[in-house]
Amino acid sequence: MHARLRRRDQRGFRLLKLATLLLAAGLPVTVAASAPTGVAALMGGLIAVIGGAQQLFKFQESRINYRSVCENLRREQHLYLARAGHYADAPDGDILLAESVERIHGQETTQPRLAVGSAAVGTDLLTAGVHCPPAAGSSSWSPRTPRGPWPLPSPTRGRSGSGAVAR
């Protein structure tokens, strides 16, 4: 769902930006071609409306916010599974994970349509996985490959021979 929202925001941003550029480039041509003044006024008004829509819907900011939350959740997931970072000495990693996920979730509540949903509740993060597509320009992912380091090991069993710590 998040990837779909991110794609929609990216498409909306690019579409509005392209429309603004086309109208702005066409405005001097319209005036130079001695088109009726109503056409030039309409084009100018559309540029203003599109600029307002960009500010209102905040497509670019939403996409950046989503990306940040996604990467923070992914980082937290990796730290938890490896029992590294602040999980290394934690007496109860599950509680620390829940608190960390809630903290990350709380940072993005200004954009309610980007809510993390069930993936933000305790170990659901581990079973559901954080489905974040890679950052733009990353060559480590294609539509045919899994979207992350899945399948994930159970945090209570560990993986023998892989260096993971069993609890």
Explain this structure:
This protein is mainly α and 167 residues long. The protein has two domains: 56 residues; 68 residues, no CATH class. The chain has five helices and no strands. The longest helix has 31 residues. The protein starts with a helix and ends in a 39-residue tail after the last helix. The relative contact order is 0.12.
Rg: 23 Å
Approximate strand percentage: under 5%
Spatial separation of the terminal alpha carbons: 33 Å
How many strands? 0
Mean pLDDT: 74
Structural category: mainly alpha
Write the layout of secondary structure elements.
Layout: H1 2-32, H2 37-57, H3 59-82, H4 93-107, H5 124-128
Give a nutshell description of this structure.
The protein is mainly alpha-helical.
Provide keyphrases for this structure.
57% helix; mainly alpha; 167 residues; 2 domains
